[in-house]
Amino acid sequence: MSPSSAAPAPSPTSPDSSRDSLAGAGWDDRTPGTYRELMPPRVSNLSWLNPATLWKARNGPLASLLGDPTGSQRQQWVRGQVERGAAGEDMLIERDDPDTFSFLLLGDTGEGDAPQYAVVPGLLKAGAGTRYAVLCSDVLYPVGSANEYGTKFFRPYRDYDAPIYPIPGNHDWYDGLTGFMRVFCDAPALPGPSRPRTGSAGWLRSLLWRAPEAPDEARLAQARQLRDKPEQAGRPPGPYWAMDTGPLRIIGIDTGLLGTIDREQGEWLARVARGPRPKILVTGSPLYVDGEHHPCAIDGGGTVDDIVRDPDNHFVAAIGGDIHNYQHYPVDVDGRRIEYVVSGGGGAFMHATHTIPAVTVGGVTEDRFRCYPLRADSLAFYSRLYGRRLHLRRLFDLSPDQAAAVIADRLGVAPTRPSTARVTLRTRFVAAVLGVATPSGHRQLLRLPVRRVLTRVLSPGSATYSPPFFKNFLRLDVTPSAVRVRCFAATGLREHEIDPPVEDDFTIALPPLPE
C-alpha cells in the first residue's frame, strides 16, 4: 500500500531491512550500539531457570488450574478509581491532539536488561515528534512489582519527553496489579487478598497464591524523578481505558492472567466502542497470532472480536502484545479491512516466528502476512542457541541463508530473502526438531521445546544478550483520512540505532465522519 500524507516516505538512503539483506537483519555487522550507556552499572539478567523466579510467577499456572480471580479484582480496582474521582464511568482519557499527529506503540518491555535498553535509541530517533506512546502488555517481568519500576520503566524511557499510556499484561497481574495501579494510577492497594467462599480449589488457590509486594514508597518516589517533566505527565484512569486522540478513539483492554475479560469490562467495551469515530483496539492478548484466530472470550458470552468486527463500531485495527515478536494480518471483514497486529517485541525475550506454519487464516494467505523477525532469522537464532547450550554446534548451527532455504522447502513458499544455500539432511533435521511446520501444518514427532519451554528457560540465557536482538516498536502517523503504521526494528547494532530499519509499512484508510 502507498504511504499516506501523515509522514514522509522513507528516503532512498533508508537502510535495508531484514527482508532485503543479511546486513539489514543485523547478521553482518558486529558493532554494538550505545544502548549500554543507558543501563545501570549493574544489571541482574532475568533467568527463568531460577526456581525463585518460577515461584514468584506461580499465580498464572495456579489461575489455570484452580480458578482465576482476576475479574473480581479488576472490578475492585475500577470501582475504587471511580469512587475516588480518579476515573469516570467511561474510563475516558481526553486529549487535545490535532487531526494530524503521531504516536508510538510498543509491548512486552520490562526485563531491565540489554534487549530492553537496545530498543531505546532507535525508539527516540524514530519517535521524534510523537505526542505519546502506548505500551501494550507486560510492563514488567517477572511479576510487575512496583519496586522494580526504576530500572525497568522509568530509567529506560526517561528521555522520551511525552506521556506513556499502558495496559497491563499477565505478568503485571502476577502482582495482583498492585504495582501497575500504584505506579500509573496512584491507587492504594486493595484491602486484602480475595478469599474463596466455598470449594477446595479456591481454598488451595488462596493458600498458594502469591500476595502482592508492598511498594517501597521512598524507592518509588526516587524512581519517578527520572520521568517527572511536565510534558511526560499522563495518567490512565485504570487497567482499561478509552482515549480520544485527534480523529481516533484508542481503546485499551485488560485481558488479565488468562487472556479473557470479565462481564463488566465487556459491557464497558461494547459501550465505548459505539459510534462512527474510527477506533483502534489495544490488547494484551492478540486476536490473530501464530496463524490462528483467538477472538478473546468475554465472561457471560460473546468475544472481543465480535465487537471489533461489528460494522457499527468502526474499528480499523486491533493491536496486541503478549507474544514477543511482530506479526501482521490484514483481514477482510464483510468488505472492510481490519488490520490485526502483534507487537510484543519491545524488550523481553524473543518468541520464535519459525514455528508459524504457512498462513491461511481469516482470508490472509502467506503473500499478505508479515512477521519480524523473519522465520529464517528466528530459526538461525534458535539453532545457534541450541548448538551452544547442547555443545553441538556442528550439528545445530544454521546460517541465515541455510535457514531461509530450509524454511522455504518445508513450508512450500518462496524465501523472503533470496538464498542460494542447499537444503541438506542436516538442515532438514534441525528445522524439524526446532518446530518448523510442513506445508500440511504437521511437525516432526521428535521436537525440541521452542515455543514455551525454551523461551521461558533457555532463551533468556546468554545468547540473547548480544546483538542482533530482533526487537521492534511501531510508529503510527495519523491524519483525518489515514493512519500510516510502520514497524521499526531494534537490533542493538549501532547502524540501526542511527537509522532504524522499517520491517513493515502499511496505511489504514479512515472512514469519513458524518457531518
TrEMBL record:
Residues 1-39 are annotated as: Disordered. InterPro entries: Metallo-depent_PP-like (IPR029052). Gene3D superfamilies: 3.60.21.10. SUPFAM superfamilies: Metallo-dependent phosphatases (SSF56300). This is Calcineurin-like phosphoesterase.
